[in-house]
Structures are given as structure tokens and as C-alpha cells.
Amino acid sequence: MPSFATLQNKPCVIAFDLSYNTVHAAAVESPPGTGPTTIPCFPASGSNCPSSPYPGFFYSAARMENVCELQLSRIDDVIAGMVLCYSGGAEATLGSVFVPSLVRIPRGNSSGLWILVSPDVLGYPQVTDITVTRPLVNEDSYLSVRWSGKPEWWFGHHHRQCQLCYEGVSTQQTRI
Question: For residue 71, what are the domain limits?
Fold first, then answer.
């Protein structure tokens, strides 16, 4: 039997299990709020959940307007996610973020950012480069994201693989 909670007017983290292309479960890091029970309104993705027999994928998306700085979450040779810092002081995350691993890169006067997804030695697609300068080599291999719209970042259990989507263009398909 489902249970519902109304969140209080303070910061909170909610995790969603998007297995089987739908919200399968939700977890809240703090005690649920009080008040009348309501059905939460879950965000809808603009892209399809990657297909894989392995544990489900996690979904993240964020608006690109008014981004003034990026903080990349780099683990070894892989970028697991990033924090988008907005001119008004707000922040949003794409992918999986580990605070101790954050590296700041200013937006500068660039027209957008470029994201490279490459297969690891086992063939699983992972983000290996994010830059705010147009790549001089292999530009067609990068996903180009302007400072507008809403990119989506699907990432798998234990960051083994990911797929990014932006304005109808997707990176390499996940490996089954």
C-alpha cells in the first residue's frame, strides 16, 4: 500500500527508483512533513530510460539557463556528475555527485559545454571529458549542450555506465 508525505518548506533530498521506466520507489532523507496527504507530482523525463537487465538507472536533469559555474565530480578518469551553479546562488546536479571530488570550472564566455562519453575497457559508456571550450579534435564525438534547455543524465548502479540526452540527441547506448 503506498504512503504519501507532504514535504516541509526546507531543503530535502529525495531519491527515486526509476526501474521499469516509472517511479518504482521513493526515499526521503529527513522525516516526512506534516499536513494533509497528497500525491507527489514526479517529473517526467523527455527521454527513455536506458534498457538493461542490470539494476535500474537513476535520472537527473537540470536547466542550463543562468549557469555561471560548473563543478565536476571526477573519480579517477571518469566524470560521475556535475553541480551547476546559477547566477542567483542556486545549484542543481546532473549525474552522481561526490562532494570531496568536485573540481570547479568557470563558464567564461563560452556558447555551451561539450560532453564526451567513451566506452571503458569493458565497453560501458562513461563520461570522460566535459569542457567549456569547443574541442579542437573529434568535435563530432562530443555531445554539444548550449546554455539553454534541459540535458538529461541517466546513470547506472555503481556508476558503471551512463547515457546523456539533450534536445533529441543521445550519447552512446548503454551496454546490456
Answer: 58-170
